[in-house]
Amino acid sequence: MKRNTWQREAVREALDGTDGFISAQALHSSLHASGSPIGLATVYRALGDLATTGEADSLQSPDGEALYRACSTTGHHHHLICRNCGRTVEIEADEVEAWAQRVAAEHGFTRAAHVVDVFGLCADCTVLLAAEAR
Amino acid sequence: MKRNTWQREAVREALDGTDGFISAQALHSSLHASGSPIGLATVYRALGDLATTGEADSLQSPDGEALYRACSTTGHHHHLICRNCGRTVEIEADEVEAWAQRVAAEHGFTRAAHVVDVFGLCADCTVLLAAEAR
DNA sequence: ACGCTTATTGATAATGATTGTCAAAACCAT
DNA sequence: ATGGTTTTGACAATCATTATCAATAAGCGT
Ligand SMILES: [Mn+2]
Ligand SMILES: [Mn+2]
Ligand SMILES: [Zn+2]
Ligand SMILES: [Zn+2]
């Protein structure tokens, strides 16, 4: 049976209090900074579990780091992520789901899954960076 | 100025001769097996360059490994990848392109790019794995 | 063909994220 | 409260990737 520990709860809360995706390392640092003595391996395990149960979403950053996020939407969904500040918008993509299934089936593929993420600059960062460039 | 070496050409040819996405490590092993004394660091550099110039496509595998492929299509496209054998089908995704642009704009995001990959089991691997499971 | 300049190579070390180990600590059903 | 079982965490191990840097070899002008 699965047991409840303050460590798991701490990870869950830290993730809830984070706006956007965050890495295991960064979340561990954040927890340490708040005085928590939680171990790094435990943070990795907790995040992995949360991702498995669907309580958190995970994705690979462009440079190959695993990032996690506590999502408000429970079902399957995708993300629009600001590559500057990390701000994230959850998006529905019914047409993409249908497209992925269809294209996989058309080529005889089974057990299809898909990675669909949109990266861009949020409105705020767009103006910020435009100002800097001047 | 950029120089031409047999190492770069060897990597290009090895990639051309590969069906599907492959990692730098695997490509290096493959080259070694064919008797090439090329260094691992050089393979990494060559693949990085090919990806930069657009001669090769790269993506992050679900477990965070960078994979490369010499693509037949030159323009923007996406991939349907067998997670067992690496076999890859290039796919058009016009509706997904449009969707990504629209959803980004709707939320005020600019400079939108997207990561769209479909992973599954190709027809061959589907029957292979079904047999093994028995 | 011959040097010369300098980009490139490759053996190796370094880095950094992630996972494995395993004894000690914590849960929780009884 | 007790005991069996799960979880933790310090640490080592792994694995991909990048940094070093002396040795090599393009390619240009001669
Ligand atoms: Mn989400
Ligand atoms: Mn392609
Ligand atoms: Zn932003
Ligand atoms: Zn396959």
Outline the structure in words.
Two copies of one chain form a homodimer. In chain A, 32% of the residues are buried. The longest helix of chain A has 14 residues. In chain A, the strands form two sheets. Chain A has a three-stranded antiparallel β-sheet with strand order 1-3-2. A three-stranded mixed β-sheet of chain A has the order 5-4-6. The mean pLDDT of chain A is 93. In chain A, α1 packs across α3 and α2 packs across α3. Chain A has 134 residues and is α+β, with helices and mostly antiparallel strands. The first copy, chain A, is 44% helix and 25% strand. Chain A contains five helices and six strands. At the A-B interface, α4 and β6 of A face α4 and β6 of B. The structure holds a DNA duplex (30 and 30 nucleotides). Chains A, B: Homodimer. Chains A, B: This is Transcriptional repressor.
pLDDT < 50 runs, ≥5 residues of chain A: none
Instruction: Estimate the global geometry of chain A from the Cα principal axes.
Output: flat
| Ligands | manganese (II) ion, zinc ion
H/E topology pattern of chain A: HEHHEEEEHEH
Distance between the termini of chain A: 59 Å
Helix content of chain A: 40-55%
Largest sheet of chain A: 3 strands, antiparallel
Overall SS class of chain A: alpha+beta
Mean pLDDT of chain A: 93
Radius of gyration of chain A: 17 Å
Please count the beta strands of chain A (DSSP E, at least 2 residues each). Answer: 6
Strand % of chain A is: 15-25%
Q: Kindly report the oligomeric state of this protein.
A: homodimer
